[in-house]
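Example 3.2
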Amino acid sequence: MRVANLFSRVLGGETHQLIRGLAYFGSAEALTRIVRIAVIVVIARQVSPQIMGLAALVLSIFEMVRVLANAGIGQRIIAESDEALQATCNTAHRLFWGWCLVVAAIQASVAGVLLLCGMADIAAMLLVLSGVYCFMPGGLVQVFLLMRERRFAVIATIGAAQTICDHLLTLVLVLVWPSAWAIVLPKLITAPLWLILVRRARFWKPDESAGYTPWRDFTGFAFGVLASEMVAVARAQLDKVVVGWLFGVQALGIYYFAFNAGLGITTSFIMALGQVLFPYLCAVKQPRERLRRCWLGLLAGILIFLPLLAFQVGMASWYVPLVFGEQWVEAAPLVAILALGGIPMIFAACASAWWRADNRPVSEAVCNSIATGLALGALVVFSPFGLEASALGYVGGMALVFIPVVLWCLLTAGKAVDTVLAREVLA
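Structure, written as tokens:
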């Protein structure tokens, strides 16, 4: 927390809540990353790149389907007024249950198609993982209420507890059963733990006397958020599918390892920036103050994450073989290249919070779509030059969209705010 106080003094005292939220997530994430790195070390020494590649393919498909569960319903809870909150939660609870069951059916259907295509192992793992959606609806309202109340320490602790249990269970299973199942199964086994912790942290139950917000009030905002989340997860997961298609399963295993040891280490930290910044922006209604807070969030993200990214890029050739073993030394350049992807993701996280707080998730979806198309397109275009060139194209595609677009949007928003204020003064 001393670091949080230091950044608060640098950026301004009123940013203390934002920096403190990041500190909570950062502390929890640092702990989980230590455990994760230890587990990756064991996995890298116990399983082959082929097994790693199979697990990567299953988890990538799972993550691409799971993003459908984030349909913007919860963000409406965060931004809702106090008077309509209970009614909105009542409707959101019903929508969560209905939508999660639909997502489970979609994943089961994907598993069925893969089974017909002769991919029985992948189909079986996906079918088992569809059970995760039976646990999610019972705790999603509580999670977004915690976010609305900015109880970031609680959210971070729950996330860390589930992730650490996931990693430790993976460690045990890999030691006794070195297979793709050992990497996949913990995602389902730890889902009940998350549900128990969330429900204990925030009590909530439906109250019919408060009424229900019309479900149509969710659709406009939800469509934009869902579209944005879908293209974001496509960017984060389809790269692995493309790498497997272009370079083979063994190269996919190397790429998956490099992604987790590079960009994967900072991804959760940067995602936390967006999670903390969104309710921080929703707490104010004045356009100028909201814009100023967004700029402060962007500056905080750069000051906090840039040194970590610089360390990863500069020291990858040293720490990868030292920590993970000499058999992964060829992945060190990939780790450094993919770590660079954290820079445009800082801008993307701040833009996401800004557009959602401003009730413009469609703008976020459009920007994400362009970045995803360019990043994945560059991955394919540069593939004749090797895996490292493809990874560099992937990172460059994100940077060419997110950094200039986000800066332009925020600067344009600043001019718009000044114009409105000038008109109000003249009137």
